[in-house]
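From the shared-data thread, chain only:
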Amino acid sequence: MTDLKSFWLLNAKIFCNNDFVEKNIFISEGIIKILSDSKPKADSYPSYDLTGKIVIPSLVDMHVHLREPGFSYKETINAGSLAAAAGGFSTVCTMPNLNPTPDSIENLKIQLDIIRRDAHVQVIPFAAITKGRMGKELVDYEALAPFVAGFSDDGSGVQNLDIMKKAMERISKTGKILAAHCEVESLLEGGYIHKGTYAKKYGHPGISSESEWKEVERDIILAEETGCRLHICHISTKESVELVRQAKKNGIDVTCETGPHYLTFSDQDLKDEGRFKMNPPIRGIEDREALREGLIDGTIDVIATDHAPHSMKEKSRGLQKSAMGVVGLETAFPAVYTTMVSSGLMSLQHLIKVMALNPRKILHLPQDTIETGNEANITVIDINDSFIVDPENFKSLGKATPYEGLELKSKILMTIYNGKPVFNALL
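Structure, as tokens:
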């Protein structure tokens, strides 16, 4: 009973063709070998009884910060990929605000070497759009493209229109996505939370919605002109939702993501604690409702966490002085399940689509459907269980989350990556 290269998942409710069917799954040497209605009789392989549990293609997060190389006191690829596994993710894509910046083959190789050594799940880097993410000089997209998910200067927007247009023209030839952090720096005005009800009440400088949607608007126009595959990161405003909706209606090749916390909270839920500070900020109630509607109607393609760990010291200075960013890998599915599915706003099938299927489609990854002959990349979830979020239980080095102390419905029980259980709460 110790051979985890070969094992059974019994009585599993498998996600298949947008529905659930009960099957028994035999996994061996990384591959789904058997899908059967009948249970094995005398069998020497380990088995897990998944009665009442759902089995889905493993989750994919297109937007995480694992902080290596350069900032391993915040997070490591080892700890971050363990957190991903605990959250049901078999694949995560890392953003390039690192040291050194992955803006050349030489610099990227440093990151890839750490990934090969330490990662517990598939970790695919984004390379930078510009050298040093400074927004001035383009990188060698053609050389980097085979090794990356796409190109992004996440953490800052490319401010110069001409530079962004030239980047899109060249990236379009690689077939990769450009993942745009949309932020007009001249409109930030020293803000660090949403320019809304809470900021006005307590005298905090606010970040305007315009600082996001104006650059979303610009980049959509450039994507139409250049034919670049544009993916817009972490949208948070109602105007951004509508711009993407209209762009899709006009046939422009644009996709977008939002984060779980933007669907759950509004600025009226803020507390003067670093765990509520991220960029873009949690917006107003109208923005939250527009994001929910955009997710339901397909305008928003993907849920991505923007998992952004910092040290406890960096996050313990209140809203004004704490670093921007919260963690999300270990709460993402339960958070969105609780907010959108358990509440009756959205189907479970649609949640699986935006967290498992759509990211693979956008990134041109195999769909990993649960069929015989496919690689076993699988997440097992108990949607009938719940838990209280306690950051001390996180595998991530980062502990700052706006969900701390809240009860979330559904629990990740197992994550299988290439046939290997990389997270297993069933033991």
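The mean pLDDT is 97.
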